[in-house]
Amino acid sequence: MVASEDQQIASMIKGVLRRQFDYILKDPYANTFNETANGSGYQDDETDMSPIVWERKYEIDSLCFPIQLAYFYWKETNDLSIFDNTFFNVVRTILKTWKVEQNHDEQSSYRFHRKNVILIDTLPNDGKGSETAWTGMTWTRFRQVMMLVCLVITFPRICLLLLY
Known about the structure:
- The chain is mainly α.
- The protein has a single domain (2-161), classed as Glycosyltransferase, CATH 1.50.10.10.
- Helices cover 40% and strands 3% of the residues.
- The protein contains five helices and two strands; from the N terminus they run H-E-E-H-H-H-H.
- It has a two-stranded antiparallel ribbon.
- Helix 1 (7-26) runs antiparallel to helix 2 and helix 1 packs across helix 3.
- The relative contact order is 0.15.
- Pfam families: Glyco_hydro_125.
């Protein structure tokens, strides 16, 4: 990573992280945000939209990547300032979301329905998604490439962050 050698790059990455943290705290289920709360995007989707959210397709990787990037940023720059109260609030928000989604059918209020689209671009069962059973893993249905996720994945390493 160039961040250890170029302060401008390090500052840019830190800014990206701060923005991602802010977005996660606004809505951990959203995968795409507007730069400002201007109401652009898929505001007609049947889900809990807000003007800052462009699209609200829940993806685990939208929550994982900022944590991974923060780790890589720290390893490259030795800048611990990224691990502040905001960071730990983000981690708590992510873990809370994943805990709810471990029992998606029983505990989750997340719904997503988009009208007049192909099936991979919406969720069946009134936007709730296919029925699930308890496995201990967290539920997800969309990926960044906008395809349905058929396997449910968990990321236990994130829990290690809370130990430090």
